What we know:
By secondary structure, the protein is of the alpha/beta class. The chain has six helices and seven strands.
Amino acid sequence: KSTLKFNFSRASLPPLFKKADSLFDKIKERDLLLHHPYDSFEALISFMAQAAHDPQVQSIEQTIYRMDPKSPLLEYLKHAAKTKKVKVVIELRARFDELNNLQIASELKKAGVEVFYGFGKLKLHAKVVLVTRQEGAHFRHYTHLSTGNYHSGTAQSYTDLAILTSHEEMGQDARHFFDSEKKMAAIVTGK
């Protein structure tokens, strides 16, 4: 009788995230590709921590399809809302996570985060973070794009690819994405 066994490998934090004083400087030099679950979800958490605490960051915008209710990402968004413009787009129809997402939305609203809900009939299932940072006289977009969701538990078992980039074209695409949510909300509410 034979038994199949699968040995899970431990996710590792890419060395760049361990030593970087400023991930923004590293991302300006080159795009960073992350492959979860082999690269630790802590890489994104490090990026969000720097964005939340960096005085040059003007705004943070993020999608939420599925997120663990104790996620440090929520704490960074709430912290950032004290001094920055913070906006999230939450999908309320995330299967089995509807109540969790309503609670997250309520918690973020109380902290001063601007909260929007999905795209009407279109279901939002994407990982997008747009960080806008003032650098000298200019603004630079730092964008995180990925498959999957922002739940640290599923990031340990699902295979997802993510990119952190400062390419302006990708930042502008993310900018249009978040602006379209605002336009959609205005159409729905009549404001």
